[in-house]
Amino acid sequence: AWTLTLTPRSGTANVGQTLAFTAKAADANNVDLGAIDWSSANASVASVANGTVTCNAAGTTSITASKTAYG
C-alpha cells in the first residue's frame, strides 16, 4: 500500500498570483515513489506545473495531484 500526501490541502489566490503545493507519494516504509502528475480541471481559471498553481482568471477549479505507477 502507498499514500499520497498534499500540502496544503487547498488554497485561494487572486488573478496573476501563484500558489505552491507539494505532494509526496510514499510506500508503507515511507520510501518516496517519485514524480507526481499534476492537472487542472479548468486551465483557463488556474494552470499547474510541478505543484505551482497560477491563477489565470476569476473562478473556481480543481487541481489534482496523482500517482499512477511506481517510479
Number of beta strands: 7
The helix content is under 10%
Strand content: 35-45%
How does the helix and strand content classify structurally?
mainly beta
Q: Major β-sheet, in short?
A: 3 strands, antiparallel
Order of helices and strands: EEEEEEE
First-residue to last-residue Cα separation: 15 Å
Poorly predicted ranges: none
Overall average pLDDT? 94
What is the tally of helical segments? 0
Q: For the largest beta sheet, what order do the strands appear in spatially?
A: 2-6-5
Shape: elongated
Q: Report Rg.
A: 13 Å
Protein described:
The protein is 0% helix and 44% strand. The chain has strands at 2-7, 18-20, 22-27, 37-40, 46-49, 52-55, 63-66. The model has no long low-confidence stretch (mean pLDDT 94). A hairpin with a 2-residue loop joins strand 5 (46-49) and strand 6 (52-55). Strands 2-6-5 form a three-stranded antiparallel sheet, with no helix packed on it. The chain has a two-stranded antiparallel sheet with strand order 1-3. The protein has 71 residues and is mostly beta strands.
Structural features:
two-stranded antiparallel ribbon; three-stranded antiparallel β-sheet; 71 residues; mainly beta
How are the SSEs placed, and which strands pair?
Blueprint (H helix, E strand, L loop, with lengths): L1 E6 L10 E3 L1 E6 L9 E4 L5 E4 L2 E4 L7 E4 L5
Antiparallel strand pairs: 1-3, 2-6, 4-7, 5-6
